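Figure 2 data, in text form.
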Amino acid sequence: MLEQTGETEYTETAGLHYEDLVEGLTIHHRPGRTICEADNTWMTLLSMNKHPLHFDAEYAKKTEHGRVVVNSVVTFAIVNGMTVYSLSARTPANLGWNDVRLIHPVFIGDTLYASSIISSRRLSASRPGDGIVTAFTTGFNGENTPVISFSRTFLVPCRREPA
């Protein structure tokens, strides 16, 4: 995003202000992110999720999926992370995630994309100059199949007039 800072000058910025995040606004988060084996291996080790479906190819071959399924924490982290640049790069605090749904398995080599819709917003009662925004996000694979969805609520600063 660009913010005009002079007659012929712009500054690259990230994140929107409360006033920009109106209900119904849809943002398609790009670029996508292709999941590699290292992503899945590292997060599986980091999260201590020892289910063999995430790291044992021979075990996974015998399941209904026939191959390793990417750890859902990887999917969640990447799709949530894709939303930060536009939605919450100015955010001082995430307030919570709700209704996380794992809709379709993700496999190594899948490319993920995300879209978010602003579902609600209000000014903060306890933090003047900030608003509370909720966005509903859906992550998709390269075939445009939804793989994950969730709502995230976060604090966003209002646009402040220059002093």
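Caption note: The chain has one domain: 19-157.
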